[in-house]
Amino acid sequence: MKSIERVFLVGGAVRDLLMGRDPKDRDYVVVGETCESMLARGFSRVGEDFPVFLHPETGDEYALARTEVNVAEGYKGFTTRIEGVSLEQDLARRDLTINAMAMEGDRLIDPFDGRGDIEAGVLRHVGEAFGEDPVRVLRAARFAARYGFEVAPETTEMMRRMVERGDLDALTPERVCLEMIKVLGEDVPSRFFRALESVGALRVVFPELHGLVGVPQPVAEHPEGDAFEHSMLVLDQCALLSKDKETRFAALVHDLGKADTPADVLPEHPGHELAGVPRVEQMCARLKLPNTFLTAGRLACTYHTRIYRVREERDAGEVVAMMRKLKANHTLEHVERLAIVGEADAKGRGEASAQEYPQADLLLGLAREFARFDALPVVEQARERGEVAGPQIAQAVSQALCRHMSRYMQLE
Ligand code: ATP
Ligand code: MG
Predict the structure, then answer these.
(1) DSSP strand pairing (78-81 vs 67-70)
(2) C-alpha 99 to ligand 2 mean position (Å)
(3) Contact 355, 338 (CB under 8 A)
(4) Local structure of 257: helix, strand or coil
(5) Probe ligand 1: pick from 60, 99, 174, max atoms within 8 Å of CB?
(6) 354 φ, ψ (degrees, to nearest 5)
(7) Is the pLDDT of residue 2 over 60?
(8) Is pLDDT at 50 greater than 90 in this prediction?
(9) Does ligand 1 lie within 6 Å of residue 181's CB atom?
(10) Which atom of ligand 1 is nearest to the CA of 182?
(11) What is the pLDDT of residue 3?
(12) Backbone angles phi and psi of 114, in degrees to 5
């Protein structure tokens, strides 16, 4: 196979190499070829909209250099041009300067000084075309989270304009979901939500989280500030404790119910636990999040204060009810996740943050004890007494289980 005339490594891989990180994937841009000549070389085409091909051996993506030509107002109003497009024109359609570099062998091609922006820690848009795709707002916020870079003032301005124009209404739930799940894998995910809030995008993309902005909390327990600030700290604490994305999501949403507290009871939040459940459901439905996220979020809302106070727990019946909901007799998955969310909740409180978290072991101890309970002898005894109806047996089991947990909790 005759080798391709000009191949350039582009985009994220160049950025990652310059930052000393391992590129996840390598994308290439090809100049001087056509769709036909790529197919003739054994590449296979992927995607109908763009001239992107897979290398027959490495599986890397090779794209013909392209530009996007605006043909109508707003999002999706563009078409792709490939004929006679140069590498520089291809780089110019990219979102941020740090993503608009190329390498040919060892030679860096950097028309927008992406390297300078990496060194300065700045996210800067390449050009006015940034405004043509609202996904770029999410991407900029995501890179802010990943690298801890500042968004350049002119880019912040551009993002704000896009929000004000209503461009973000065109974002699909799938895309928002995808970006959020990627963000949940970063070390300091709160930066994403903070970056969105700083340009007014949080209200549009994550209204449930935006509902926490400015919501007061009792100062002694929450010197960090409002319910949004608390949620951000809890999310980041959770990211220190667990890589599991459902767990991090649960930490993010555990206090959503605080948005619904009536003004006359603020800054207390009685009942915010259950109030959070429909909020989580609404958020998960809108973003079409997988059910594992929904379950984790609901459980975190419902039980986080119970776990926070588990040292003072005196109600074996409530513990039994909780462990049943957490399916603790089948799996410790939900219990362990809640223990982590609880720890993050206790540690995400500014100066009032807990140093230790004995609640985790207490909770897991309760869960193991619950799982250890053997219902069979109770069922047999109930039958011997002549109790044969289902509800009767269930009641006998529940009572025995509560007694079992009471003894463990040293309540009797
Ligand atoms: P990641 O490390 O998360 O993969 P990435 O920057 O490599 O980040 P990709 O989705 O792999 O992201 O895209 C590869 C490149 O394509 C980007 O670096 C950027 O140059 C360009 N790109 C991707 N999406 C957009 C977009 N919505 N607008 C403009 N350019 C984009
Ligand atoms: Mg990439």
Answers:
(1) antiparallel
(2) 9
(3) no
(4) helix
(5) 99
(6) -70, 145
(7) no
(8) no
(9) no
(10) 3
(11) 64
(12) -65, -35
pTM of the model: 0.93
Alpha-helical runs (H) found in 184-226 = 190-198, 202-205, 207-210
Whether the upstream peptide bond of residue 267 has omega within 30° of 0, thus cis, is yes
Q: Quick one: pLDDT band at residue 167, thresholds 50, 70, 90?
A: very high
For residue 76, pLDDT over 70 is answered with: no
Domain ranges of the chain: 1-117, 240-372, 376-408
| pLDDT of residue 1 exceeding 90 | no
Average pLDDT of the chain, as a whole number: 94
| Alpha-carbon dihedral sign for residues 150, 123, 161, 164 | negative
- In words, the CATH class of domain 1-117 is alpha beta
Sign of the CA dihedral running 285, 290, 292, 297: negative
Which single residue is written with the structure tokens 């006359």?
Answer: 264
Name the residue with tokens 């968004």.
151
CA-based nearest residue to 370, from 398, 343, 341, 340: 398
User: Nearest Cα to 28, choosing from 45, 8, 55?
Assistant: 8
Question: What is the per-residue burial (b if ≥16 Cβ within 10 Å, else e) of 36-47?
Answer: eebeebebeeee
The alpha helices in 62-152, defined as continuous H runs, are: 87-92, 114-120, 135-147
Residue 104: strand, helix, or coil: strand
Give, as residue ranges, everything with CB less than 5 Å from ion ligand 2: 12, 25
pLDDT for residue 70: 72
Pairing of strands 67-70, 102-104: unpaired
pLDDT score for 410: 85
Q: Pairing state of beta strands 27-31 and 61-64?
A: parallel
